[in-house]
Design a protein that fits this description.
Blueprint: E1 7-13, E2 22-26, E3 32-38, E4 41-46, H1 56-59, E5 61-63, E6 66-68, E7 75-77, E8 87-90, E9 93-98
Antiparallel strand pairs: 1-9, 2-3, 3-4, 5-6, 6-7, 8-9
Length: 99
Amino acid sequence: MTDTMTDNVLIGVVADFPDGEIRPASMPDGNTLAVYNVDGTLYATADPCTHGEASLSEEDILTGKIVECPWHFGTFDDLRQTHRYAVHRRAQYLRHQSY
């Protein structure tokens, strides 16, 4: 069975995700994560906005921990959302772990 298998995927070097910005990270399955850095803490969500499929990593507006969609101007506090992805900082690398 593979349902308990853990994948630990390198998604980038920490320096690729500067403070106060959202950047894309490509996953092996073809999906893209939006990785954002808020005061040195890194978070990740699905890249497309839930309303209009706008790319949060390409057209984002990040104010503190609030992400604003440029298409419909909806705002999200992604630090509180349940659709976050687990990302782990290992030395200078950022990894995504899935279960």
